[in-house]
């Protein structure tokens, strides 16, 4: 459990560095940001590594489980399959082997969290367990509800990686109209990679769909996470790491990214109002 | 401007922090660049000390309006050209623009014009009886001028990290995070791209170029290191675009040392060819490695610079110290290598005897003509009073830039805004080895 705390901490620190790099004098330093994103990815892999120990990889089973959990008003974000052979430090300052703990601390975590908050934005995750997630990807597409589908199609039309803000913009109105919704809408980050996504359905009980995604091991950024305030931080950033790069290399996508971060910012503000304990921290950030 | 405080509570600006140090090819001159874009050149006096010779503003802060980015004026690298005549030429670079400067002396001025007399007053025209065609040169106080001769701009989309002058003395390379360009020193409006690591899809970016250098003798060979810990040797004869390397120097990572920060720690921060051209010296965050150009799979020597930091990587990551880029240097005979560390420590390793020494560059320790005594960092309890424990190291004091005279045992150490120049008291010829019982005797020379 300790290593998860450390991994989470490292993720937060890394995101902070990426965020700060955008306002640094002299422009974004590509080298440093690349290294930070590698650390972010490693930490995230460790953090999520035990979610799948013991969890069936079958999507339908996963969905059924979700329904049960939702019915019992308990959140349990399901994230991709456990990582293989990952041995980062438990304590980030030391290098022992990481024990795979077959528990789900997330349940404890979310049960303590405010119902409205946390686990909003599952979204993109980079995983190296490609073979495990590939089967799920096709089935999860079917399970998407209307608004996320719209969002997703828009995102896919964009082709390359798109910030979550676009999807948030679409999902938000749906959420606002949901009186009973316990959770703010999930943000999608759509891209040519498979992703994890959580979103609420309309009507009574919010349903979280987990889209298991896989990614190339060569990709270096992990934008959104499905846990707590860390995912909130990513949402606030708006644009992805490639957004940082596109700005720097002044490709045409830069303008798109700019508008994304703009709308993302608005969506973030809307969502922030729904988050009680985290709102102060994030606004301050 | 941010104000910093050194150990004596002296306030200094971040602009004064030295960011580049380089001896000229003969060793007669030493150039330093700082974050404020200034260059200070020192000249070696006959007695052996270095005094200020010239100071000029090399780069100014700029603003890229297209990308809404400020371009820092910080001098990243300085490289001297071999001296061809009485003037001295050096290349300086910031993140985006390389400049060629000519530093020349003037100690005479022309006088004796036809219309003015020696005091500068107009002559009475009716009294002029002869014409002087050539002016008379009269001595004046020595004036050292630095004039800008070439500006090599707009060739790099990413931040320039190195420049290196080819042994042919006609071309040089400049490297940024993703590309290496080849220039002719006389032509500023075009350069050739010889290495391009930019992927089609930037999301697939996995490595960046960290340092690049030409081979000292073979004008077709260059080396560049990457953030993944590899160093490549490229041959420009084989293809125009040297993305395919001729050799790849990479050591397998010890799986026992894997951590979140393994990748950062293995990123190479400096590459230097030995003077002989037979070896490569690479510096990563914790170690320095000597590679034989004929053996790619592992270094011939590995020196742990500050392995005691391995257990503190998380803290160093938080403080951004883990991103510090330390340079390294060879001595004139390639028998000793030197690199900097924290707490204003720097280390020297004698390759033959495997002896190493840790020395400190600070005002308290370095009085004029004082002999530096070796320091030691201890992990556990102090064995001697002079030991420093790991936890009391000051990580704000870092020696990133060091330079060794090309032939003599003179070293230049940059510690924040201070430049220290140390000379070996015992021997002024190359080939001095660190002896078993005698620590190196070093004395400081006046600097800055």
From TrEMBL, chain A:
<feature type="compositionally biased region" description="Polar residues">
    <location>
        <begin position="108"/>
        <end position="126"/>
    </location>
</feature>
<dbReference type="Pfam" id="PF05760">
    <property type="entry name" value="IER"/>
</dbReference>
<feature type="compositionally biased region" description="Acidic residues">
    <location>
        <begin position="251"/>
        <end position="260"/>
    </location>
</feature>
<feature type="compositionally biased region" description="Polar residues">
    <location>
        <begin position="174"/>
        <end position="184"/>
    </location>
</feature>
<comment type="similarity">
    <text>Belongs to the IER family.</text>
</comment>
<feature type="region of interest" description="Disordered">
    <location>
        <begin position="244"/>
        <end position="265"/>
    </location>
</feature>
<feature type="region of interest" description="Disordered">
    <location>
        <begin position="75"/>
        <end position="230"/>
    </location>
</feature>
<dbReference type="InterPro" id="IPR008653">
    <property type="entry name" value="IER"/>
</dbReference>
<feature type="compositionally biased region" description="Low complexity">
    <location>
        <begin position="140"/>
        <end position="150"/>
    </location>
</feature>
<protein>
    <submittedName>
        <fullName>Immediate early response 5</fullName>
    </submittedName>
</protein>
<feature type="compositionally biased region" description="Polar residues">
    <location>
        <begin position="86"/>
        <end position="95"/>
    </location>
</feature>
Automatic annotation (TrEMBL), chain B:
<comment type="similarity">
    <text>Belongs to the phosphatase 2A regulatory subunit B family.</text>
</comment>
<dbReference type="InterPro" id="IPR018067">
    <property type="entry name" value="PP2A_PR55_CS"/>
</dbReference>
<keyword id="KW-0677">Repeat</keyword>
<dbReference type="Pfam" id="PF00400">
    <property type="entry name" value="WD40"/>
</dbReference>
<dbReference type="InterPro" id="IPR001680">
    <property type="entry name" value="WD40_rpt"/>
</dbReference>
<dbReference type="InterPro" id="IPR000009">
    <property type="entry name" value="PP2A_PR55"/>
</dbReference>
<dbReference type="GO" id="GO:0019888">
    <property type="term" value="F:protein phosphatase regulator activity"/>
</dbReference>
<keyword id="KW-0853">WD repeat</keyword>
<dbReference type="InterPro" id="IPR036322">
    <property type="entry name" value="WD40_repeat_dom_sf"/>
</dbReference>
<dbReference type="GO" id="GO:0000159">
    <property type="term" value="C:protein phosphatase type 2A complex"/>
</dbReference>
<protein>
    <recommendedName>
        <fullName>Serine/threonine-protein phosphatase 2A 55 kDa regulatory subunit B</fullName>
    </recommendedName>
</protein>
<dbReference type="InterPro" id="IPR015943">
    <property type="entry name" value="WD40/YVTN_repeat-like_dom_sf"/>
</dbReference>
């Amino acid at each position: 459990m300790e290593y998860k705390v450390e991994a989470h901490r490292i993720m937060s620190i890394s995101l902070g560095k990426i965020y700060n790099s955008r306002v640094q004098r002299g422009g974004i330093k590509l080298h440093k940001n690349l290294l930070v994103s590698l650390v972010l990815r490693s930490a995230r892999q460790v953090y999520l590594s035990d979610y799948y120990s013991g969890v069936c990889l079958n999507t339908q089973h996963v969905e059924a489980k979700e329904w049960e959990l939702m019915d019992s008003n308990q959140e349990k974000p399901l994230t991709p399959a456990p990582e293989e052979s990952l041995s980062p430090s438990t304590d980030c300052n030391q290098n022992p082997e990481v024990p795979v703990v077959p528990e789900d601390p997330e349940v404890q975590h979310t049960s303590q969290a405010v119902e409205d908050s946390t686990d909003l934005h599952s979204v993109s995750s980079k995983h190296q367990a490609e073979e495990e997630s590939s089967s799920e990807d096709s089935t999860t597409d079917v399970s998407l509800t209307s608004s996320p589908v719209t969002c997703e199609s828009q995102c896919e039309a964009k082709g390359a990686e798109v910030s979550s803000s676009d999807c948030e913009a679409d999902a938000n109105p749906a959420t606002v109209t949901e009186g009973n919704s316990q959770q703010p809408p999930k943000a999608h980050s759509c891209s040519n990679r498979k992703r994890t996504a959580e979103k609420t359905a309309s009507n009574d009980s919010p349903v979280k769909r987990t889209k298991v995604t896989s990614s190339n091991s060569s990709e270096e950024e992990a934008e959104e996470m499905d846990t707590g305030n860390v995912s909130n931080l990513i949402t606030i950033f708006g644009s992805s790491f490639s957004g940082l790069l596109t700005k720097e290399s002044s490709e045409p996508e830069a303008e798109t990214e700019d508008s994304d971060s703009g709308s993302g910012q608005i969506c973030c503000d809307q969502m922030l109002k729904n988050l009680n304990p985290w709102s102060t921290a994030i606004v301050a950030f | 401007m941010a104000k910093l405080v050194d150990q004596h509570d002296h306030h200094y600006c971040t602009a004064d922090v030295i960011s580049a140090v380089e001896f000229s090819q003969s060793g007669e001159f030493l150039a330093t660049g700082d974050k404020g874009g200034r260059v200070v050149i020192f000249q070696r006096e006959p007695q052996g000390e270095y005094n200020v010779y010239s100071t000029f503003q090399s780069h100014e802060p700029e603003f890229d309006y297209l990308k809404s980015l400020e371009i820092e004026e910080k001098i990243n690298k300085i490289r001297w050209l071999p001296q061809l005549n009485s003037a001295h030429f050096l290349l300086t670079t910031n993140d985006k623009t390389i400049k060629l400067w000519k530093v020349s002396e003037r100690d005479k001025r022309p006088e004796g014009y036809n219309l003015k007399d020696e005091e500068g007053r107009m002559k009475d025209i009716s009294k002029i009886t002869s014409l002087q065609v050539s002016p008379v040169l009269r001595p004046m106080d020595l004036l050292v001028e630095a004039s800008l001769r070439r500006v090599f701009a707009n060739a790099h989309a990413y931040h320039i990290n190195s420049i290196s002058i080819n042994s042919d003395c006609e071309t040089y390379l400049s490297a940024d995070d993703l590309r290496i360009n080849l220039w002719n020193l006389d032509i500023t409006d075009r350069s050739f791209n010889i290495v391009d690591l930019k992927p089609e899809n930037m999301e697939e970016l996995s490595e960046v170029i960290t340092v690049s250098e030409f081979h000292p003798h073979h004008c077709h060979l260059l080396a560049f290191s990457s953030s993944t810990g590899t160093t490549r040797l490229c041959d420009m004869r084989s293809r125009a675009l040297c993305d395919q390397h001729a050799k790849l120097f990479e050591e397998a990572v010890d799986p026992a040392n894997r951590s979140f920060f393994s990748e950062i720690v293995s990123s190479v921060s400096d590459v230097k060819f030995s003077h002989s051209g037979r070896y490569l010296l690479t510096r990563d965050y914790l170690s320095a490695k000597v590679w034989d150009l004929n053996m790619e799979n592992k270094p011939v020597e590995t020196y742990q610079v500050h392995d005691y930091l391995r257990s503190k990587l998380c803290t160093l990551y938080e403080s951004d110290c883990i991103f510090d880029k330390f340079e390294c240097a060879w001595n004139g005979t390639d028998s000793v290598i030197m690199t900097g560390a924290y707490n204003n420590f720097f280390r020297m390793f004698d390759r033959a005897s495997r002896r190493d020494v840790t020395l400190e560059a600070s005002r308290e320790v370095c009085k004029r003509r004082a002999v530096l005594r070796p320091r030691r960092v201890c992990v556990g309890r102090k064995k001697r009073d002079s030991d420093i424990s790991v936890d009391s190291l000051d990580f704000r004091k870092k020696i990133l830039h060091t330079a060794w005279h090309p032939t003599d045992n003179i070293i230049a150490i940059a510690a924040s805004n201070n430049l220290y120049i140390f000379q070996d008291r015992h021997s002024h010829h190359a080939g001095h080895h660190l002896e078993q019982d005698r620590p190196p005797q070093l004395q400081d020379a006046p600097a800055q």
